[in-house]
Design a protein that fits this description.
Elements: H1 2-14, H2 16-58, H3 67-78
Length: 79
């Protein structure tokens, strides 16, 4: 049993660089994927908010109270 542990340790020690490289690669891929997902979510939320805002701005009716201007024009024409 002890010899098996020693052999396993020697094998791990021999392949330590390869194992560490695989772990680093896996962590890097996970970070890239997580960043891509977060970026996609932020872009989607931002676009949805922007689109909702512009839809509400463009569909709003424009009203203006021009009675003061009409009164002023009438007073100018009366003189």
């Amino acid at each position: 049993m002890s010899q098996e542990k020693v052999d396993r340790y020697k094998e791990e020690k021999k392949n330590r660089k390869v194992i560490q490289a695989k772990k680093k690669r896996k962590v890097l891929i996970e970070k890239i994927c997580a960043g891509a997902i977060v970026l996609a979510l932020v872009c989607w939320i931002g676009y949805s908010a922007w689109d909702s805002y512009w839809d509400s701005v463009n569909n709003r009716p424009v009203t203006a109270d021009v009675t003061a201007l009409d009164d002023y024009m009438t007073s100018l024409n009366a003189e």
